[in-house]
Every structure is written in C-alpha cells, then in structure tokens.
Design a protein that fits this description.
The protein has 119 residues and is of the alpha/beta class. It has a single domain, classed as Rossmann fold, CATH 3.40.50.150. The strands form two sheets. A two-stranded parallel sheet has the order 1-2. A two-stranded parallel sheet has the order 3-4. The longest helix is centred in the N-terminal third of the chain and has 10 residues. It is globular, with a radius of gyration of 14 Å. The structure holds S-adenosylmethionine (SAM). InterPro entries: SAM-dependent_MTases_sf, SAM_dep_MeTrfase_SAV2177_type. This is S-adenosyl methyltransferase.
Length: 119
C-alpha cells in the first residue's frame, strides 16, 4: 500500500507489471492531491490491474474492503509501506496496518521509513 510519487521514474505497478504483467496493485493515500494524480498515473497493463483507495491507512476495515475490489485477499499479498510509518503516531496503529492485510500465509511487508516510536 503506497501513495504515488510522480517525481520518480517508475511507480510500483509499473515495476511489478514489467516483471509480472498480471500483477494487481492497490495504492492507498488520504491526500486528495494524491488521489487526483492517481487518476492520471494509474494506467495498468492490459493483463493486470491497479486501483486507488482514498482512505486513512489506519482505517484497516475500509482499506481491506475497498482493496478486495482488485485483490484476492485469500492469496498472499505484499504490503509496501513507503514513507508512511513515520506518519503513524503509535506502534499500536502501525501494528494493525502491517499485520491485518497479511492474513494469507507467505504474505510479506516492507517499510522504508523509521518512525520516532521505533527508536
Ligand atoms: C513521505 S510521503 C511518501 C510518498 C511515497 N510513498 C514515497 O515513498 O515517495 C507520505 C505520504 O503518506 C500519506 N499519508 C500520511 N499519513 C497517512 C495516513 N494515515 N493514511 C493515508 N495516507 C497517509 C501522505 O498523504 C503522503 O502522500
């Protein structure tokens, strides 16, 4: 689950679908500007799918319900938390965000930020 950064050369779905054309990717962000960019940037390859969920990642029930439009959550998923954990005030909130989307066995999570509460 990662918002879009238009300053980078390739977004997550472009990288994933270059390797696996059938890859299905869902982005999540609560910023309306990111949502507006998503409409123009999220162009999936013909064999895969992309979607954008405009929500707070801490609203895990909503995120999972909307992600299920695109993802089969009974199968393993990779959760990418790029630059997001530092925005979550407590470890308890982060625990829910990182664990519940990974209910299927062999799911993975990666994060690229160090929140203040982790030190
Ligand atoms: C540092 S930027 C990361 C941008 C991009 N993922 C990257 O790695 O370059 C943080 C993003 O997280 C979003 N964000 C922060 N807190 C959030 C929350 N609770 N729910 C959803 N999105 C959030 C912000 O709107 C912003 O787009």
């Amino acid at each position: 689950m990662s918002p879009i950064d238009e300053t980078t050369a390739n977004n997550t779905h472009e990288v994933a679908q270059a390797v696996t054309p059938t890859a299905r990717i869902v982005y999540v962000d609560y910023d309306p500007l990111v949502q507006a960019h998503a409409r123009t940037l999220l162009t999936s390859g013909p064999d895969g799918a992309t979607d954008f969920v405009h929500a707070d990642v801490r609203d895990v029930d909503r995120v999972l319900a909307e992600a299920a439009r695109t993802l089969d959550l009974d199968r393993p998923v990779a959760v990418i938390l790029s630059g997001i954990l530092a925005h979550l005030p407590t470890a308890e909130e982060a625990r829910d965000v990182t664990r519940r989307p990974r209910s299927a066995p062999t799911s993975t999570v990666s994060s690229s930020s160090s929140p203040a509460w982790s030190t």
